[in-house]
């Protein structure tokens, strides 16, 4: 896609425009972006177009603040990932930061856009401003890790340039996008290898820097590389962990909050909860031994960190790339003793385990966990609490549970599954 809109994405001046004027200008730029698209397939561009539409609607409705809609346009533009869309995101971020200088979201968006465009030093400044404003510890951790990664990658580039100053490496990457810098770094390494050979000490150091750079840009950094000494466990180790123990699976049903099942739930040998759960002493109980979560959406690694303290955390996901990135970004050091390894990534559909493809990719987390427990068949009792309530299981899943249930509570609060 080639755009011919001269000066469309020029940097904003430092003086803050009037809020209304800034929004009007952003609406105009977004409109010109849409007009330049033509017929561009792709779900992410459709989502971006929808966000632009929401911004226009918010702008035209009296007494409606369009600021959040403006930020959403920038976020959707970054999701698309093209250079034009990234520049659009930066334009939106500049406007948002000028309108509200203390907006954490605006500075975060600006940092992400600048980083994607290869303007690392400016991105560092935006991230630092976000951290100055951010009070939430979880939000600070995400950007602090990004900031650390960015500083380390910039250090790799600077040292690579110093090793061979005559090659003019920094000049070749100045003003280039992140993807272009990565390609240029690879070319730089290949050229130095051809000139001096792999035995040269400077070349070996250059290769090390390139490997570090690629690892950081692909996976980022973790606050604690050992995740607080958590141990990865596979199917066999998890089977041993639950063998001979009574298990209770607790649904995320609001009706449980008003129940009196808390002490009964906490009396099981293992209590398993799912996704974004909550606990109350009287209603849901307070113990959580296993937390199972399913990755959803196009960028599941961008969600909040899993901070609840549990013995074991299992993360389900069909895409191995998304699964790995989510673990690197969302696991919190010290929050779990064991983390499920790839053999527990998709137990129901995994050809090496159950190999049941008929359930589709949208299987609920609770049902995934129940099928895994039933398949392993080492627990003397498996009870479901709250899964008989509406919206906890999909129809096909509910049919399976009813067919395998040994005891069902009339209120829908408790189901005991039959074991083979």
Instruction: Give the tally of β-strands.
Output: 9
Helix fraction? 40-55%
Which structural category do the helix and sheet elements fall into? alpha/beta
Percent strand equals 5-15%
Reconstruct the topology from this structure.
Elements: H1 19-37, H2 43-60, H3 67-80, H4 83-99, H5 104-116, H6 120-133, H7 137-163, H8 169-173, H9 178-196, H10 201-219, E1 231-233, H11 235-242, E2 247-250, H12 262-266, E3 270-274, E4 290-294, E5 310-316, H13 320-330, E6 336-340, H14 365-376, E7 382-385, H15 395-404, E8 405-408, E9 414-417
Parallel strand pairs: 1-6, 2-3, 2-7, 3-4, 4-5, 5-6
Antiparallel strand pairs: 7-9, 8-9
Helix pairs in contact: 1-2, 1-4, 2-3, 3-4, 3-5, 4-5, 5-6, 6-7, 7-10, 9-10
Structure write-up:
The chain has 420 residues and is an alpha/beta fold. It folds into 3 domains: 19-134, Serine Threonine Protein Phosphatase 5, Tetratricopeptide repeat; 151-219, no CATH class; 231-417, sialyltransferase cstii, chain A. The protein is built from 15 helices and 9 strands. It has helices at 19-37, 43-60, 67-80, 83-99, 104-116, 120-133, 137-163, 169-173, 178-196, 201-219, 235-242, 262-266, 320-330, 365-376, 395-404, and strands at 231-233, 247-250, 270-274, 290-294, 310-316, 336-340, 382-385, 405-408, 414-417. The chain has a 9-stranded mixed sheet. It is globular, with a radius of gyration of 26 Å.
């Amino acid at each position: 896609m080639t755009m011919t809109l001269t000066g469309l994405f020029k940097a904003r001046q430092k003086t803050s425009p009037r809020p209304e004027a800034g929004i009007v200008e952003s609406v105009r730029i977004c409109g010109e972006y849409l007009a330049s698209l033509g017929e561009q397939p792709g779900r992410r561009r459709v989502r971006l177009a929808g966000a632009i539409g929401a911004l226009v609607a918010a702008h035209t409705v009296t007494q409606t603040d369009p600021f959040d809609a403006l930020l959403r346009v920038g976020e959707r533009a970054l999701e698309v990932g093209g250079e034009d869309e990234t520049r659009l995101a930066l334009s939106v971020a500049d406007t948002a930061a000028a309108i509200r200088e203390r907006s954490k979201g605006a500075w975060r968006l600006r940092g992400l856009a600048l980083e994607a465009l290869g303007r690392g030093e400016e991105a560092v400044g935006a991230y630092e401003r976000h951290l100055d404003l951010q009070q939430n510890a979880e939000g600070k951790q995400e950007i602090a890790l990004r900031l650390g990664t960015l500083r380390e990658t910039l250090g790799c580039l600077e040292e690579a340039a110093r090793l061979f100053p005559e090659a003019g490496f920094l000049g070749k990457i100045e003003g280039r996008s992140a993807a272009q810098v990565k390609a240029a770094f690879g070319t730089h390494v290949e050229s130095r290898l051809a000139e001096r050979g792999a035995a040269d000490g400077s070349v070996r150091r250059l290769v090390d820097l390139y490997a570090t750079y690629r690892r950081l840009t692909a996976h980022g950094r973790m606050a604690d590389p050992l995740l607080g000494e958590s141990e990865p466990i596979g199917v066999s180790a998890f089977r041993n962990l639950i063998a001979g123990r009574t298990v209770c699976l607790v649904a995320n049903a609001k009706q449980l909050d008003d129940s009196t099942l808390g002490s009964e739930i906490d009396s099981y040998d293992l209590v398993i909860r799912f996704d974004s759960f909550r606990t109350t002493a009287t209603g849901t109980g307070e113990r959580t031994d296993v937390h199972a979560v399913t990755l959803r959406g196009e960028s599941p690694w961008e969600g909040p960190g899993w901070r609840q303290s549990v013995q074991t955390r299992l993360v389900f996901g069909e895409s191995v790339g998304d699964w790995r990135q989510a673990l690197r970004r969302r696991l919190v050091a010290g929050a779990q003793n064991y983390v499920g390894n790839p053999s527990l990534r998709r137990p129901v559909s995994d050809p090496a385990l159950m190999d049941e493809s008929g359930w589709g990719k949208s299987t609920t987390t609770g049902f995934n966990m129940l099928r895994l427990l039933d398949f392993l068949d080492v627990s003397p009792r498996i009870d479901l609490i709250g899964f008989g309530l509406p919206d906890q299981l999909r129809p096909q899943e509910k049919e399976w549970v009813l067919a395998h249930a040994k005891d069902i509570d009339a209120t829908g609060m408790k189901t005991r599954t039959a074991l083979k």
